[in-house]
Write a structure and sequence with these properties.
This protein is mostly beta strands. Helix content is 0%, strand content 13%.
Length: 46
């Protein structure tokens, strides 16, 4: 797991490896998210 992939949910700052599992160094928020690729899938129905 690379800490640079995660961002703070409140201020959108990247998570530093030293603060992994704790809280955002800028705002103190404790919720982080990982940016995921947008995969649009199209299905055909019969």
């Amino acid at each position: 797991m690379y800490a640079g992939d995660y961002r703070c949910a409140k201020c959108n700052e990247p998570l530093n490896s030293s603060s992994m599992g704790l809280q955002c160094e800028k705002c103190g928020y404790k919720i982080f998210f990982k940016k995921r690729e947008e995969n649009k899938q199209t299905y055909k129905s019969d």
